[in-house]
Design goal:
Helices cover 38% and strands 14% of the residues. By secondary structure, it is of the alpha/beta class. The strands form 3 sheets. A 7-stranded parallel sheet has the order 3-2-1-6-7-8-9, sandwiched between helices.
Length: 443
């Protein structure tokens, strides 16, 4: 404490801020955090019951991504060999200066509504991150996303790898073609478990990163476990349960033109069109499912003000047959809907098991996808302008002339892996098998 007082007395605040921003200061601080973490880990290890359980923690950043881990969590919770916990944290969106506390609030509410116990990894009143090791020492941590800029170092893989094994599955199906933010990311070298969507995805991964071959497990995408069982009969998520057709519009967040790393969104091309079309067709309900970063990104990038962004949401929600849905039950809406219109990427894969029509909003500004993604696109409808969106809705959806259905069926057979046991159960079993082969606590 004496050194800190002397430092603050001698070094002016402006200079302190300048020094704090230097990489060597960051590296020093991170090493200090690891040392502090080792003390927390030692305490947690000493307090641990010798029950042989496999302790698994899930870090969750947003309601929309809980479906990545839900079936794994449920499978482990039902197995007495496991002890599971959930840590909720906020996310720092691209181009934003701070974390998104509004979404963090929605995440906590979502988990409470689902009856899922969780620890809060961020103190909103103090604006401070809480070390995850204060909640106990897990054997395995499931990371939410591979991007280190989205949260504190305390929740990055470079920190957590010192204390536990790391598991990762893609938060969205790997359909884009950017090896530098996929197979080549440093995260994977520190993961013990990398769970993949299909054999086709494994082949792509192994070709780019052959050294990681022994960590790759084809389990299917846990999100798709939400399609198991009958379609829910409760239509409470919808604004107009009596509507003749229900269409989901899912725009991507990449509204800027810098193509770093990618550009897909046509939101500003069609945002007025969807308002007007919905107003003119009250028998069709439209759900705007924005990418979780869409509205924050357009504000942070300076393309719209906060007031303009909020005004558009309000206009869409004011439609008697329209709503903006950002909740975590999107797969229920998928199953109950009639079609999907999008320029997002992950939903190209995730909506496919519904076997319902998909229309991709194409444009010259988008990048090509990987071979799996391009194969999917070739089986879907495409629209390059508003007139073609109208034709898709009028002919394919309202007119029930779904002439590309057989193509989608073939793609399902060629590209998807769906385990009879479910992806969550597959992942749980892989981890349990490894624990039996090595040691009870995976240490």
């Amino acid at each position: 404490m004496l050194i800190k007082r002397i430092y603050k007395k001698i070094i002016p605040a402006g200079v302190r801020n300048f020094i704090a921003g230097h990489p060597w200061v960051e590296r020093h601080r991170n090493r200090q955090l690891v040392r502090e973490g080792q003390e927390l880990a030692a305490t947690a290890r000493a307090e641990r019951k010798p029950d042989g359980k496999i302790r698994v923690a899930f870090i969750v950043q947003r309601p929309a991504l809980w479906c990545n881990h839900a079936s794994i969590y449920e499978a482990m919770q039902a197995d007495p060999a496991f002890e599971v916990s959930v840590i909720a944290i906020p996310k720092r969106p691209p181009a934003a200066a701070g974390v998104d506390l509004a979404e963090y609030g929605r995440l906590q509410s979502f988990l409470r509504e689902k009856g899922i116990p969780f620890f809060g990894g961020y103190d909103e009143s103090a604006r401070a991150w809480i070390n995850p090791l204060t909640f106990g020492l897990p054997d395995i941590v499931f990371l939410p996303q591979p991007y280190t800029f989205t949260q504190s170092f305390l929740y990055h893989f470079p920190y957590l790898k010192h204390f536990c094994k790391l598991a990762y599955l893609n938060y969205g199906a790997t359909l884009s073609n950017w090896p530098h933010i996929q197979y080549e990311m440093p995260l994977y070298a520190d993961c013990r478990f990398i769970f993949l969507e299909s054999e086709a995805h494994k082949a792509l991964f192994a070709a780019h990163a052959p050294a990681l071959a022994d960590r790759l497990y084809v389990t299917g995408q846990p999100k798709l476990d939400l399609y198991r069982g009958p379609v829910p009969s409760d239509m409470g998520l919808w604004k107009c349960p009596q509507a003749k057709r229900r269409i989901i519009w899912a725009p991507h967040f990449t509204v800027t033109n810098d193509r770093t790393p990618h550009t897909f969104s046509n939101f500003f091309v069609y945002y007025d069109f969807f308002l007007k079309y919905a107003a003119a067709h009250p028998e069709v309900e439209f759900v705007l499912r924005p990418h979780p970063e869409l509205f924050e990104h357009m504000v942070a990038a300076g393309l719209k003000t906060r007031a303009e962004s909020t005004a558009y949401r309000d206009r869409f929600n004011a439609l008697p047959n329209g709503q903006v849905y950002e909740g975590g039950d999107i797969f229920t809406m998928f199953r109950q809907s009639d079609a999907l219109i999008l320029d997002s990427i992950g939903f190209l894969w995730e909506y496919l098991p519904t076997r319902k029509p998909i229309c991709f909003l194409d444009s010259p500004r988008r990048q090509r996808l990987n071979p799996i993604g391009e194969k999917l696109l070739h089986a879907y409808y495409a629209a390059w302008e508003a007139r073609e969106i109208e034709e898709f809705i009028d002919q394919v959806i309202v007119g029930s002339d779904d002439w590309r259905r057989r193509e989608r069926e073939r793609v399902i057979q060629q590209c998807m892996f769906v385990s009879s046991a479910g992806a969550g159960m597959e992942i749980k079993n892989h981890i349990k098998q490894e624990s039996l082969c090595r040691s009870p606590t995976l240490e």
